[in-house]
Amino acid sequence: MSKFELVLLLSPDLNTSLIDSELTDISKKITDKKGKIVNQEDWGLRDLSYSIKKFNKAFYKFIQIEIDGNHIAILKNDFNQSDNMLRYLFIKVDKHQELPTKLNNEKKS
Fold first, then answer.
1. Is residue 32 classed as helix, strand or coil in its secondary structure?
2. Spatial separation of the C-alpha atoms in residues 54 and 56, rounded to whole Å
3. How far apart are alpha carbons 95 and 22 in whole angstroms?
4. pLDDT one-digit tens code per residue, 92-106
5. Which domains, from first to last, does the chain contain?
6. What is the Cα–Cα distance from 29 to 40, expressed in whole angstroms?
7. 103 burial class (0-12, 13-18, 19+ CB within 10 angstroms)?
């Protein structure tokens, strides 16, 4: 099992229940592939550096996972199907950083 940190940018049009539903769906996709969520953090609604799909803000989510690296391509394909996800980024790490992250402590917009 490899360690990854996943950053998600979700549409700012979503309400809390839709965000929770999207995160539940993501968790299910990870666990279905024998992966596990180690930790997650909500970075809140933040400004984007540039517009994505005509949005200037997005809900940021940070998730630490352990999963076989071969499944990342499948997860990326699944994430590309979501209309609510603006962007995602998988980062392979040797060791997960301690939470809370510095970004979580910064002022949210």
1. helix
2. 7
3. 26
4. 999 887 777 777 666
5. 2-105 (3.30.70.60)
6. 15
7. middle
